[in-house]
Design goal:
It is a single chain. This protein is α+β, with helices and mostly antiparallel strands. It has 3 domains: 123 residues, Carboxypeptidase-like, regulatory domain (Immunoglobulin-like, Sandwich), CATH 2.60.40; 179 residues, no CATH class; 133 residues, Glutaredoxin, CATH 3.40.30. The chain is 42% helix and 19% strand. It contains 15 helices and 15 strands. The chain has a 5-stranded mixed β-sheet, covered by helices on one side. Strands 4-1-7-8 form a 4-stranded mixed β-sheet. The chain has a 4-stranded antiparallel β-sheet with strand order 3-2-5-6. Helix 14 links the parallel strand 11 and strand 12.
Length: 461
């Protein structure tokens, strides 16, 4: 990404800060900018996944936050479904300019504190380009020593870039340098952790050189203050998966997830981080399975190891939902409301039709993504009856655009059947013509959904 201060962006800087006196600017921290093609009416600033401020866009799609007291550190801002990281020090005056049609590529920082953030964006863009570059994936076919040599060469170049930036920017905060190191080098560390898994189908015995994981000496995977940094979290997960694989468990084995949870317990001592990883890995396994059949050993292991009462209750609600509507049983009848405020029973709506009920809530599902996905699947499987059921709906509830409103319903908080979906987790319920549940917990973006819908469409039962 080229860091260019466009004339329009320089004009924005004058508009935002031109009226401030030098003494006033030195007393405050500023975060603002302009959004082109906005996806919502605001920008939200977060610290450790906790909202710090909600900044409304004005008529010109500009926003500005002004803070008398500000804690230095790593933040991220979110607009619509997209987000990006930034580092802010007290008395920084940071402006962003971005076009939502090309979120990361168009993002430019300006003002005091901009340089620190532009190099971070460069690192993230570099990572995205590598992820879409086949050449990097082709390296996994190399023997271990040559693969290691390739990765080491990339790490040398990354270190030179960090050193050059440090030499031209004095007094950089220690926390910032730690983050710069992570976003620059950890994607390569992740590739090294993935090497054995990517070669798991190889018929040849793979022997790693003794220095293959020498970078691990510099890496702390038990840092809960970095758990919200995507690059760090991805490395930790890849490292833990590799640990389990080297114990002899295939990722397709039902023993893999229980072993993974035990590995988390053994390696992660920070309670908050441990609980978050335990929940995430359990849910990843469950959602990838895209079925109401559960790995009982994995769930039992989770309940034994987690110390979060809140998380345990949320997981238990998912299990309760699975029991309420389970594959192989007749669909429990429940009432839903259409957008003319008329109540109907679900059995009446789907009678004698192979049906796909997609249960969702705006809290966990983007309306734009859901609309796009349903349009795609309904076109691909035209013989199936797709029905939208929004849960936790309010009086101001709006249907999905571009989806036939006759096939959209909701369950509000006063509906006695709301406990069938107590977890609020989005799910797909597949029901055949006889009203029997084929799958009570399919996942709309899961790898198995196309095969599952094809089976239902071809079913004459």
């Amino acid at each position: 990404m080229k860091i260019i201060l466009r004339p329009l962006f320089l004009l924005l800087t004058i508009v935002f800060f031109g009226s401030c006196t030098t003494s006033e600017k030195n007393q405050y921290t500023y975060f603002g900018g302009k959004i082109i093609h906005p996806k919502s009416e605001h920008v939200i600033l977060f610290k450790n996944d906790i909202p710090v401020d909600t900044l409304l866009l004005d008529k010109e799609d500009k926003f500005m936050g002004k803070y008398k007291e500000f804690n230095e550190g790593f933040y991220y801002f979110k607009h619509g479904p997209e987000f990006q990281y930034l580092y802010i020090k007290p008395k920084d005056s940071i402006l962003i300019r971005l076009n939502t049609w090309d979120f990361d590529e168009s993002l430019v920082f300006s003002g005091t504190g901009a340089e620190k953030n532009n190099i971070l964006i460069d690192c993230f863009l570099e990572q995205e380009k590598e992820n879409s570059n086949y050449t990097f994936y082709s390296f996994y076919k190399l023997p271990p020593n040559k693969f290691k040599s390739k990765m080491d060469s990339v790490l040398v170049l990354r270190q030179r870039k960090i050193d050059a930036f440090k030499n031209s920017n004095e007094k950089l905060p220690k926390e910032y340098l730690t983050i710069l190191e992570i976003v620059s080098k950890y994607p390569i560390y992740s590739r090294l952790e993935n090497y054995l898994l990517m070669n798991s189908k190889s018929k040849n015995t793979i022997t790693l050189p003794s220095n293959f994981y020498n970078y691990r000496k510099q890496v702390n995977i038990d840092n809960d203050s970095l758990m919200y940094l995507r690059t760090y979290g991805k490395y930790v997960v890849n490292r833990l998966h590799n640990e389990v694989y080297t114990q002899g468990y295939s990722s397709n084995s039902k023993k893999f997830t229980p072993s993974l949870l035990n590995t988390i317990d053994n390696h992660i001592k920070k309670e908050k981080l441990k609980n978050a990883l335990l929940r995430e890995m359990l849910m990843n396994d469950f959602l990838m399975n895209s079925s109401c059949s559960v790995n009982k050993e994995a769930f039992q292991t989770y309940f034994r190891l987690s110390t979060s009462i809140k998380d345990k209750k949320s997981i238990q609600r998912i299990l309760n939902d699975i029991k309420s509507i389970h594959g192989g049983k007749e669909l429990t009848n429940f009432n839903v409301t259409n957008y003319n405020n008329s109540t109907k029973s679900i059995q009446e709506i789907i009678a004698k039709k192979n049906s796909v009920l997609y249960v969702w809530t705006p809290k966990y599902t983007s309306k734009e993504y859901l609309t796009s996905r349903i349009k795609f699947l309904s076109h691909k499987f035209p013989k199936l009856h797709f029905v939208s059921i929004q849960i936790t709906a309010t009086k101001n509830n709006q249907p999905l655009k571009e989806i036939d409103i006759k096939n959209q319903f909701y369950i509000n908080s006063e509906n006695k059947y709301k406990n069938l979906f107590s977890s609020k987790l989005p799910r797909i319920i597949l029901v055949n013509k006889k009203g029997m549940v084929v799958n009570g917990f399919a996942v709309i973006n899961g790898q198995k959904i196309n095969k599952q819908l094809a089976y239902l469409q071809n079913s004459n039962k």
